[in-house]
Amino acid sequence: MSLDALAPELERLRDADLYRRRRVQQGPQQPRARIDGRELLSFCSNDYLGLANHPKVIAALQRGAERWGVGSGAAHLVNGHSAAHEALEEELAAFTGRERALLFSTGYMANLGVISALAGRRDTLLQDKLNHASLLDAAQLSRATLRRYAHADADALAAQLERHPETRLVITDGVFSMDGDLAPLPALAERARRAGAWLMVDDAHGLGVLGPGGRGSLAHFGLDQDAAPILMGTLGKALGVSGAFVAGPAVLIETLIQRARSYIYTTATPPALAEATRFSLRLAERETWRREHLQALIIRLRDGATRLGLELMASATPIQPLVAGSAARALAWSRALEERGILVGAIRPPTVPEGSARLRITLSAAHTESDVDRLLAALAELPRADRAD
Ligand SMILES: *Cc1c(COP(=O)(O)O)cnc(C)c1O
Q1: What radius of gyration do the chain's Cα atoms show?
Q2: Source organism's superkingdom (predicted)?
Q3: Which one of 1, 230, 294, 364 has the minimum C-beta count within 10 Å?
């Protein structure tokens, strides 16, 4: 096959308003972003606590580099595992109230590693319909049978568990990445426990944001390790750094060290990053004002949108989507906002279901109240014809 066959496919994506392009950031991750040569007020990062560009986290990274150098030099099981990684793992286990934690290079890799280590060809996995792409890819890699239950529906899960008693894992996002809503974790945990399946929660968007001390969506509901034995958290979102971890019983962590291929066959992340993460974890836990300010911004945005007659999706988290419907409309809205100096990404299929393309507005503790007001003023000017359906 000639590579020329790829060009018509790209053309088709362009015609369907599904073509994606990257913007070039010319400065650090922060609300006032310099992008493609312009200053834009950005509402699309997952830096929910505003730690990605925090001077003390930067300093921790610099000190880490002075102490540990840059590269880890090898995989954790060869000789890339440092005292910095070890300390971070212990701190993450304590933070999440789990027996042990294990670092992965990314959340995507953590999900691949856990699910393919714990399930195989003869097993069944049950997943929420709106789970993150990495969880679905992990199911494929494991070769287990994947069944999906209706979004955030514990009764639908119970019905599936009844039909498939061999189910090994029930897997859900804690906070859904494109919708911002919370999974009904207590009910899911109860159903999974009764069926003898393990509950795995991907808390990429809950960690740092929800629960006492930002301990995440499980802590928000008071669910401990017995209720939800497998917790995956990412370090590149609210914690502002990079990487991920899995936390749970010691026997789970030991199994992952022996069997998770995306843990074993890859270079450990730089120890300096672990030092930076240790620092940002401390800030995330202690600086409660970040979560309080974020919560105030969420309320300000939602109240303002209601006054404008704009219906944001039902969400109490920093992810506040505005559904446009077609990909073309989502793009038109995103462009209209950009003309007013505001950056909000248009999220289109296949990231979200067909017909539910949306603006994914995200808030950060680094935003000010007047930033939110500017966003509202720009939303008020979205072309009326576009707004009414
Ligand atoms: C971002 C995300 C991941 C992937 O994490 P990375 O560290 O970015 O690879 C996994 N799950 C969910 C729900 C996410 O939002």
Answers
A1: 21
A2: Bacteria
A3: 1
85 is catalytic: no
The first and second tokens of residue 344, run together, are 């909000």
Pocket test for ligand 1, best of 105, 132, 135, 205 (most atoms within 8 A of CB): 132
Q: Is 132 in the pocket of ligand 1 (CB under 6 A)?
A: yes
282-316 per-position pLDDT tens digit: 999 999 999 999 999 999 999 999 999 999 999 99
The question of whether 237 is a catalytic residue gets the answer: yes
Question: Structure tokens of 233?
Answer: 């958290």
| Ligand 1: centre distance to CA 293 (Å) | 24
User: Is 56 considered catalytic here?
Assistant: no
Question: Quick one: pLDDT at residue 37?
Answer: 87
Pocket residue to mutate for ligand 1, from 104, 202, 262, most atoms within 8 A of Cβ: 202
**List of domains in the chain:** 21-49+288-379 (3.90.1150.10), 55-286 (3.40.640.10)
Contact 104, 230 (CB under 8 A): no
> Catalytic residue among 85, 237, 293, 367, which?
237
Output phi, psi for 8, to 5 deg.
-60, -35
Other CB atoms within 10 A of residue 94 CB: 12
Catalytic residue among 81, 85, 205, 367: 205
Residue range 320-327: mean pLDDT, rounded: 95
In the predicted model, what is the mean pLDDT of the chain? 96
- pLDDT at residue number 386: 45
Chain-centre distance of CA 286, in angstroms?
A: 22
What is the rounded end-to-end Cα distance, in angstroms, of the chain?
A: 44
